[in-house]
Amino acid sequence: MNVDKYAPESLMMSYGYKPELSEGAVKPPIFQTSTFVFKTAEEGKAFFEVAYGLRKQSFDEEPGLIYSRINNPNLEILENRLCLWDKAADCAVFESGMSAISTVLLEFLSPGDLLLYSSPVYGGTDHFIHHFLPKIGIDAIGFNSDQSYEEIVAMVEQSGKADKLAMIYVETPANPTNDIIDISSCRKVADIFSTKNREVKVAVDNTYMGPLWSHPLQLGADIVIYSATKYIGGHSDLIAGAVLGSDEIIKRVKVLRTFLGNMPSPHTCWLLLRSLETLKVRMEQQMKNARKVASFLNRHPKVEKVYYLGLIEPESKNYDLYKRQYNAPGAMISFDIQGGEKAAFQFLNNLKLFKLAVSLGSTEGLAQHPASMTHAGVDPEDKIRLGITGKMIRLSIGIEYVEDIIGDVEQALAKVACLAEVLEEG
Ligand SMILES: *Cc1c(COP(=O)(O)O)cnc(C)c1O
User: Fold this and answer.
1) Which residues pair with 305 in a beta bridge?
2) What global pTM score does this model have?
3) Which of 78, 308, 353, 406 has its CA at a distance of 20 to 30 angstroms from the CA of residue 245?
4) pLDDT by residue (tens digit) across 167-181?
């Protein structure tokens, strides 16, 4: 199939799968098997030589199926299809977003290295950076969206470990504030500190905006990471992750995956293949709904501030960056409600259509309270600095009929006591 001729959404139903190898089944069956039969001992030997890098694969040779920790048709079809959205050379899928992230950090960082990361990052990532990496001698310094390129370079230089910088890890837009980090500028920082023998890698967690609305590899990133639990899975029924990049990078990631054994099951991959067929229609509908919900919230008297990329004003300093990095504003909205945590909880407890749950990117709307839920573990001072306060609510917009979504938000806001009443009750 000619990949360049068709858009990714046209290839999601068929790419990488040959019905004639599966009794003509129009969809890939679940290859629920742990191991694969070799035709001959010679074939088994040849498969292992390629898998273990003992000899170079010949041009027309496909890697043979050996054992489901190393490869499996459901894994491979999924990886091939995920490559299309980001125009990546290769992909490795994982049993969770966190296993994708931790495997990348373990593979590309060594004891003594320095990691530069954008702050805030996903809670699990933050924990791994601050509680696991120091145990193996890896230091990390954080930067945020307010800092300029010059300030970030100066910070690395002043750390005394500039020659040990190995990776810049970026999560953008930041959760839950939707602050944007400039990926191209991170590439420039990486290039400044790269030497001939030591190339500083730029890794981007694109869970919030990918794989549809942002393509970090085209903005200078080396590695793109997903929690496929979110938009890619899109139905709140599985946990999975993915890493994309060049052949060389993904080869290293896959070797470590083989030995950590953190690949997804054939069934999870099969579910993800089903999800990918509707990825674009789901995400587009979520984004269209989100635009309308954000503009409703923005006009509501009980709402103090709305954090949504679609509300960035053309005059503001981030507008050019927003346009350069994203082709749509996404479907994640945070907002501050008048009346603090008490009002926020009243709102959340009164939602009827939205589910009160963490996670995001699913077909159903989800609402949560970052300060006490997803970001409960963040240092209290950092929370204040980042603007994650008791009055903040995060919404992941689903594909329900938009008037029903807005109606639910409206009725829940109506149940929130007005500011004067909240203050009176203390
Ligand atoms: C959910 C999430 C993760 C972790 O993914 P899991 O699939 O839950 O392991 C990482 N990064 C971001 C931005 C996320 O939203």
Assistant:
1) 336
2) 0.95
3) 308
4) 999 999 998 999 999
